[in-house]
Structure formats: structure tokens, C-alpha cells
Amino acid sequence: MDFYWIPVLCYFVATVFYMGYLFMNQKSGLRIGFYLVVLGTVFQAASLGILFIRGIPIAGGLDTTLYLFALFITIAFIGSQIKFNAPIIGTFVSPLAFIMTLPHVILPKGMIEHDPSLTNPWVLIHIVLILLGEALFTVAFISGVLYIFEERKIKSKHVGSFLRKLPSLTTLDRINHICLLSGFPLLTVGLALGLLLAKEICGEYWVWGQKETWSMVTWLLYAILLHGRLASGWRGKKAAFGAVLGFGIILFTLFVIGYISPGQHDFLEY
Length: 270
Hints:
The protein is mainly α. The protein folds into 2 domains: 114 residues; 146 residues. Helices cover 77% and strands 0% of the residues. It is built from 9 helices and no strands. The longest helix is centred in the middle third of the chain and has 36 residues. The chain is flat. The two termini are 26 Å apart. The C terminus is likely disordered.
């Protein structure tokens, strides 16, 4: 079996155990599911290390970028689990990681061509910083969705078995806050580095292409959210809706705008 299948299978089996906890109340599923996510993360990091040593770009094509993004999402989840003990987030992260790593192992080798600029270590750092920031925003998005759901159920006094499995509203809000606080500087530095690389690779710092414009919109939204939290005391539902909106724009920029108009990011396409 191909070594790269191991993390994919770990995430799939983890999903099965998490679903067992979610729908059949098998509490052991939480512990086993988490350990499998950790195991998958270790093997995934090792597989990317092998690619890097072989001189193969670990980001740039759709498959490798998603594979790297999945790794950062699972790392962000593991960190949040250790700090906040909110295992329910794993029921969302494990299937997401499975779906995102699958293209890397099922697409035929050589199907996707990579731009030579990806051998530039600064381009890799640029991609890694942005994906790390967006991975943290992904966990913030999940916590935001759970916050909105839990608050509505509490207000309507419909407290079912699923609601009892959720962390407190305070914990979900703290996860949102820490992920925003950690992810925004990474996104900022990654975008700033991208401007410098654009000058080197494309001959100009900025082009008002659709992807560049929407990347700036994403940055401005998260800047507003961070300012609102730190300066205006935004908490709870307002911050949760902001995290959901921000992640929606990230998805729109990556998969819709990125496909229609890659702009200076041709090296991220295939």
C-alpha cells in the first residue's frame, strides 16, 4: 500500500469513530478518533517531508495544496483539543481532512504540472503562512457554527442529547478568539511576502485581479473582526457570525475566484 494512503485511512477511520460517538453515544469513539487524527497527522507530516526531501513541490497543485492544508487543519484541531478539550470539533475536522487528502492519493501521478517558481523556498513559505492562518480560521469557523447552533437551542429551550456533547458557549468563543488572534498575523505576513514575491516573479507588486482583490477583502474582514474583539469587545454571536462569514469568503476566493481568475497565482493552478 502506498505510504500516502496511511493518513487518509487514519482520517477515515477516525471519522467512523467520531460518528459512533455522535450518533450512538459511544464515548470511546472520542478518544480513539482523536488518537487516529494524531496518528494521521504524524504520517501526513512525514509524507510531506519525504516529498520535500525528494525536491517535489509540497504545495501549488490542487491535490498537494489541499493535502498541506489538511495537515495544518488537523494540527490546529490538535492544539485546540489540548488547550480547550473540545473533542466535538473532531467530528468535523476528521471527515474534512479525509476529503482533502483523498485527491493526493487517487489522482494519477503526473496529472498535475507544477510551476518552476514553486522551487523558490520563499514561495513555499508564502503558501505555508497563508494556509496556516486559514487552517486556524477553519477551526474558528467550526467553533462559530457550533456557537450559533448551541445558543439558538438554549434560547429555544430545546436541549437534546447532542447539545450536551457540545462545549460551553464560553469555550467555543475562546476557541474562536485564540484562532483569530493566532491566524491573523500568519495571514498578514503571508500576504505581505506574496507582494514581494509578485514583484520578483511577475514584475509588479500588485495587480487588481479578482483573486488579489478578494484576498484583500478576506484580510480586511479578519482585521475588522480582530479589531472588534480587541477594541470593541465583540464576543459571542457577533464574533461567531464573523468567523462564518470570513471562512465563506476564504472558500469563495480559493475555489471560485481562484478557478475563474487566478491572476498572479497561476502557479497554484493545474
